[in-house]
Specification:
The protein is built from 10 helices and no strands. By secondary structure, the chain is mostly helical. Helix 4 crosses helix 5 and helix 7 packs across helix 9. The longest helix has 23 residues.
Length: 166
């Protein structure tokens, strides 16, 4: 991290890996895999923020938790974390809410999902498949079919009118 953030890192966390903040970070990152740690470091490298993350922010990067804006933009719910957020969200209230209220509801669901992941909770499985929809090609009725249907409708209406007259 000192190679990424330079003096900003060492000023905040020191440069001795055996004392102080390093020990706290070691406890906070215990249980994460090498791949997860690599994802967190990769997130730091690609992030536009020039300041080093806090331990919770780095852990979120390691766990693959996207930013709130990314969740808001994932309308197709393709990301596992976004699907988890929607499990915490009352979709009906969300759809009926004003934009400010909807944003607040989404933020609350995001915070709940984030806490779930930080405590070791799993993300929902990806959908196995999409339900196929039969696409029917609309074919206009022929002139004969229209005349036949119109005759049937007229016959039904005349029968109804005759029944009312009686």
């Amino acid at each position: 991290m000192a190679e990424i953030y330079g003096p900003k890192w060492t000023a905040g966390y020191g440069d001795n890996p055996n004392t102080g903040a390093a020990l706290t970070w070691a406890k906070g990152l215990a249980g994460l895999t090498g791949e997860q740690l690599a994802a967190g470091i990769g997130g730091c490298i690609t992030c536009a923020d020039p300041w080093p993350p806090t331990l919770p922010e780095f852990r979120l990067r390691c766990l693959g938790v996207p930013a709130f804006a990314a969740v808001r933009a994932d309308a197709g719910k393709r990301d596992g974390f976004t699907r988890l957020v929607w499990q915490y969200l009352d979709g009906h209230r969300y759809r009926l809410a004003s934009s400010d209220m909807a944003d607040r509801l989404l933020r609350e669901a995001y915070d709940q999902a984030r806490e779930h992941v930080m405590r070791g909770g799993a993300l929902p499985e990806a959908p196995a498949a999409e339900i196929e929809h039969e696409v029917r090609v609309q074919v206009p009725a022929s002139r004969e079919q229209v005349q036949q249907h119109m005759a049937e409708i007229a016959r039904e209406l005349n029968m109804a009118a005759a029944a009312e007259a009686a």
